[in-house]
Every structure is written in structure tokens, then in C-alpha cells.
Amino acid sequence: MSIVQVILIVFIIFAVSRAILRLRQGNLTALGFAFWMSIWILALIGVVFPEISTDIAKFLGIGRGVDVIIYLSIMVLYYLVFRIYIIIEDLRQEITKLVSSLSIENERLINLIRNSRKSKSSRPSKASNKK
After folding, report:
1. Do 76 and 34 touch, CB atoms closer than 8 A?
2. In a domain, 122, yes or no
3. Which of 29, 70, 19 is nearest to 46 (CA)?
4. Which end of the chain is more exposed for a tag (fewer CB within 10 A), N or C?
5. Nearest alpha-carbon partner for 2 in 56, 48, 70, 64
6. Per-residue pLDDT tens for 4-58?
């Protein structure tokens, strides 16, 4: 086993531990956990048995196993960027609705306070009633 394989295995173990921790903390859904675990298990298999990626490359008509890994990695990264984009757009829409709602509520409260002050100033004071 080469030093690169050892470093990659240590990294994969670290990544798996982070996924487990996030799942326990409730920051990662079961589906998200399954996704990341499948990614890291496939990565571990590719690191421990690099000849598998070469066999897959030959089957797909690609020159080297590392090329298959790079192509798959790029596809996964594009998918993740797309998912992040969707999440950001959803958050943007939620923030817009929240700001609009808060603005309307704030304006309503300001008008309520103004009307309350106007009604107090138009009433005669208790001191003027005693005279």
C-alpha cells in the first residue's frame, strides 16, 4: 500500500466520522447520510482496489481508471452545485417573504402607536376636568 493510499484512507475515515457526527447532531438527514456514505464507501473501494477503476474505464472505453474517477467526481460536483443553488434560491425567496411580512407588520404597529398618541392628545387631561 502506497503513502497516497494511506493518506486517502485516513481522509475518508475522517470524512465518514464527520458525516456520522452531523447525523447524530441532526444536521444531516438520513437520505443525506446515505448519499455521503455511499460516496465515501465508493472512494474507499477505489483507493483500496485501484484496479477496479481501471476495469470500469476499460469497460466504458476510457483510457485510465483515474480518468473515470475524475469524470464521476466532476459529475457529482455539478450535481452538488445545482443542489446548493436550489437551496440558496429557496432561502432567498423565504427571506424576501419574511422581510415583506415584517415590513407590513412594522408599518401596522407604527400606525397603531401614532393613532394611540393622537387619541391621547385629543382627550382632555384630568387636571383640566377638576377646575
Report:
1. no
2. no
3. 70
4. C
5. 48
6. 999 999 999 999 999 999 999 999 999 999 999 999 999 999 999 989 999 999 9
